[in-house]
Amino acid sequence: MNKPSPLKIGITGGIGSGKSTVCKIFEILGIPVYYADDRAKWLMANDPDLKASIQSEFGIESYSETGELNRQYLAEKVFSNSEAVSKINALVHPCVGRDFESWVKQQSTPYVLKEAALIFESGGEKKLDGVINVSSPLKIRVARVLLRDPHRSEEQINHIIDQQMPDEEKNALANYVIKNSENKMLIPQVLAIHQELFEKSNS
Ligand code: ATP
């Protein structure tokens, strides 16, 4: 008999909301997490088909002679060029989608998590069984990122925030919301969702 496929749950949230921190708690509970943004970077550097299509779209200079991704060259190509951003997304997203599906097949837990900064922005929720949004007040997020990433200025962080869907909209679209403010404990919120997803996977 085929084993049932795990429920696929997205976990998203704006920069500095605490997605990775929340994912670490789920991992302690034994839930596998697919870090989509990290994996996308890995695939761009290592997947032969993706590398070939990036080179044919953006030029041979996209990779060095020894095959390493030329991040600076590509960043310059897509900087303030929404058409180029759409083109690169159209190459990378399907590749990450396929990689995620084959990763899911190797898992045997009742549910798995797919962590990504942008899910609703690209309609990614349609391929998932639910989405958790990690929600945190703007001021706290900026302060946390300034502390975590000393190389970033407040202006740069606000620029990223401006490009992301506002938190209230994401909360309205999400199936589950985890509030990561200073006066709300994270672990009980994670445990409640964990329990709910276990029950959902059995129903
Ligand atoms: P990004 O989108 O930039 O990857 P993220 O949403 O994954 O960010 P984290 O890296 O989990 O966010 O959190 C941002 C910073 O805030 C980290 O340094 C983390 O340790 C810290 N942090 C997150 N949640 C809390 C909390 N509840 N209390 C204290 N520090 C926290």
Structure description:
Helix 2 (about 35-45) crosses helix 3 (about 50-60), helix 2 crosses helix 5 (about 80-105) and helix 3 runs antiparallel to helix 5. The model has no long low-confidence stretch (mean pLDDT about 95). This protein is α/β, with parallel strands linked by helices. The chain has nine helices and five strands, in the order E-H-E-H-H-H-H-E-E-H-H-H-E-H. It starts with 6 loop residues before the first strand and ends with a helix. It is globular, with a radius of gyration of 18 Å. It has two domains: about 1-30 and about 110-203, Rossmann fold, CATH 3.40.50.300; about 35-105. It has a five-stranded parallel sheet with strand order 2-3-1-4-5, sandwiched between helices. The longest helix has 24 residues, at about 80-105. The structure holds adenosine-5'-triphosphate. The site of adenosine-5'-triphosphate has 13 residues, from helix 1 and helix 6.
Q: Which stretches are low in confidence, meaning pLDDT under 50 for 5 or more residues running?
A: none
The backbone outline, from C-alpha atoms, is globular
Helix content, binned percent: 40-55%
Report the portion of residues in β strands.
Answer: 5-15%
What topology does this entry show?
Elements (H helix, E strand, L loop, with lengths): L6 E6 L6 H10 L4 E3 H11 L1 H11 L12 H8 L3 H24 L5 E5 L14 E6 L2 H11 L5 H10 L3 H7 L2 E4 L6 H17 L1
Parallel strand pairs: 1-3, 1-4, 2-3, 4-5
The structure holds adenosine-5'-triphosphate.
Adenosine-5'-triphosphate (ATP) binds next to helix 1 and helix 6.
